[in-house]
Amino acid sequence: MRVKIILPHAIVVLLVGLISFYAVRARLAGTQDTASLMSGLERGANNAAGAFQLQLLRAERWLNEQATADSTRVALQNGSATDADKRQNASEALETLRRGAAESKVMSQPDLAFFVDENGKAAGRSAQAQTYHGEDFGAEYPALKTALASGHSGSDVWLSPKFAHRYLVSYAPVRDSAGKVAGVLGIAWNLNDQRMAEIGEGATFLAVLSGGTSTTVAKANAGIAPTLADDLASSQKDVVTRALANGKDTIVSGDIVIAAVPLASVGDGKRAVIVLARKADVVADPSSIVWPVLPAMGMGLLFVVIAGWLLGSYITEPVARMEETLLQVINGNTNQRVQTEHAELGGLAFRINQLLNQVLGVEEDNTDEEGRPSAPPAQDHFQEALGVEERATDAGQVAALAAEPEAQYYARIYREYIDAKKANGEGVDGITHDVFANRIKGMERDAAAKLGKPVRYAVQRRERQVVLLAIPLA
Length: 474
Hints:
This protein has helices at 2-28, 34-67, 70-76, 83-103, 137-140, 142-150, 193-199, 226-230, 234-246, 287-290, 293-330, 346-360, 382-392, 395-403, 406-423, 433-451; strands at residues 112-117, 122-125, 154-160, 165-175, 181-190, 205-210, 213-219, 249-253, 256-262, 272-279, 455-462, 465-472. By secondary structure, the chain is of the alpha+beta class.
């Protein structure tokens, strides 16, 4: 019984423990070692840089289309207009261009549209509070000068305390009727954390190399490594510098893994870097994490064995006592009855005793400690019950029972019991003198133990029932 209780539960605990061990180990293996983490982060940085540059390329192509439109060239190169009219015409055309960029889904709506003449000086901007006229942007941004000289479109990051610029810019050349570059048409987005989150594709931040120093321009996911994005440590600055020199770089700096990929299409290709950073929760040996699963599984097996053993004992011990009692009855000790108090098996023990009494033809003693029936009599039999109690305490009857020899006493009540049963029409086969006498002796011992005095029984027949009445002898 105990093995049957323990074994299935032990198998379940064992299977759950082993499945947990190998599942956790497989999940950790190959994902938390340093090399895998660095490789994955480098791929992420390349993907983010590619997505970033793809959006800039789309903006450049769209600008090329707008720069070749006759309406744009006329608005920006109206030589017959006064300076005030030129600025007004340019402003209106650039505002229309800025709004059209959003409708064409070139990234998000630009914050600025501008025009720079062939000398790199501001010649107009979209309708905003601040005006651009005559500022030498070409001197401030060398890549713009290159675009004017080559006639190629491009993108750049404009950082300038002088002009209060913090822009991500795309631009395309505008040519006159002779095909000569007459200026540059551009759109710009304020480069802030929100913009970076929109176009960064999982990047942590954008760093720009300006004046030999790397500067964090915008953060996309600063919550991953806030200190890294706010203040580049020397080792983190090194990864930006090396990425610009080598095309990419990945390092582990303290508990941070950093991957940097330069944006080849921004400025001269040595200008801006997309950086991904992740906390380096590196585990040299994944097994060191999952090994505790096995002791936990062992403890689970131990608890199953203890609980199963206790539960088995709770069930098997009363069953063993029942079996032993029935074996004694089979071997002739018919006085034995199951004595078990058990929440689950107590009812079964009671029914077994009832069955034994019925099979052996012996009535159960249902009297209380005073020799009275334990069940209350029905209302119409109250006088009869009272008569029984009075007869039970009759001094003459008590004296006669006490004086009667033992062998004669058992033989007499056996005859009276059989005669009463037959008078009721009940079968008496199997009720032998020895079986009956042994049962009566057992009942006398039990009653004497309760009353503290010797007891003998008298046979009474009431309403086709045969009752054995206990009578104290002293």
